[in-house]
Design brief:
single chain; Rossmann fold; 17% strand; alpha/beta; 8 strands; 8-stranded mixed β-sheet
């Protein structure tokens, strides 16, 4: 059965969507069948993979409110070999529409059950909030959450709030919810602050922190405007090398063998 990881952080601008896109791209590069679910009404993951969010007629919104099954709404990028369940601004309405529904926190989990075995990895990109959509993403995370954390001081406050939320979800909805890993993003080795934040976060998650540090890089910031992951836009850049390393970390921990020169996507 495929692994399901949800990328979550209630703080915006931490590289969450960037990590979702580029981790997906490199997992696919190493031969994995990957589905990226865009659970954010801003639809940035959708746009960053070259899909016009204004043209999305049916996607995550229809799936989560129960108007349509997941499979017919999935798009496939043959070049990247990534599948995408796209989002649109309509998804913002789901926060309100789901409030009176039974088992509203489990809508996404139930919706993707029929398709889990089609993929090796399903990554869910949540909005930068702790609302009902993010709650759905976390309940669906059968193999854990991946938390991108920006290497800045204020990120530490967000970690504490997110840890409390995870504890509440374990207590009330999903006792098995685990932290799969913490990804440090926008690392600048020239500053003491970045190193200090990494050390502090490691105290909170001594076993779960990924070794790979994602650098602050111009190429990573540019790639979304071209609708491409860094693996296509600038494959030789430091940012690309970092996300390739992160994908290898995930695969190795999950027991997958990594081809010496990439996977079937070459």
């Amino acid at each position: 059965m495929g692994r399901i990881y949800t990328l979550v952080n209630q703080k915006g601008g931490v590289g969450k969507t960037t990590t979702a896109i580029n981790l997906s791209a490199y997992l696919a590069y190493y031969g994995q069948r990957v589905l990226l679910i865009d659970l954010d009404p801003q639809a940035n993951a959708t746009s960053c993979l070259g899909v016009d969010k204004r043209a999305v007629k049916s996607g995550t919104y229809d799936v989560i409110i129960g108007a349509s099954p997941a499979l017919p709404n999935i798009l496939h990028n043959p070049r990247l070999k990534i599948s995408l369940l796209p989002s649109s601004t309509a998804l913002a309405g789901a926060e309100v529409e789901l409030v009176p529904e039974l088992a509203r926190e489990s809508r996404l989990k139930e919706a993707i059950k029929p398709i889990v075995e089609r993929y090796d990895y399903i990554l869910i990109d949540c909005p930068p909030s702790l609302g009902l959509l993010t709650l759905n993403g976390m309940v669906a995370a059968q193999d854990g959450v991946i938390i991108p954390v920006q290497c800045e001081y204020l990120a530490l406050e967000g970690i504490g709030q997110l840890t409390q939320t995870i504890a509440r979800i374990r207590a009330a909805l999903f006792p098995g919810l685990a932290v799969r890993g913490v990804v440090m993003t926008m690392f600048d080795g020239r500053t003491n602050l970045s190193s200090d934040v990494v050390a502090e976060v490691r105290k909170h998650f001594p076993e779960q922190m990924f070794k790979t540090l994602i650098p602050r890089a111009v190429r990573l910031a540019e790639a979304p405007s071209y609708g491409q992951p860094i693996s296509v836009y600038a494959p030789g850049s430091n940012g690309a090398q970092a996300y390739a390393s992160l994908a290898r970390e995930v695969l190795e921990a999950d027991g997958f063998a990594i081809p010496a020169s990439g996977g079937e996507n070459e």
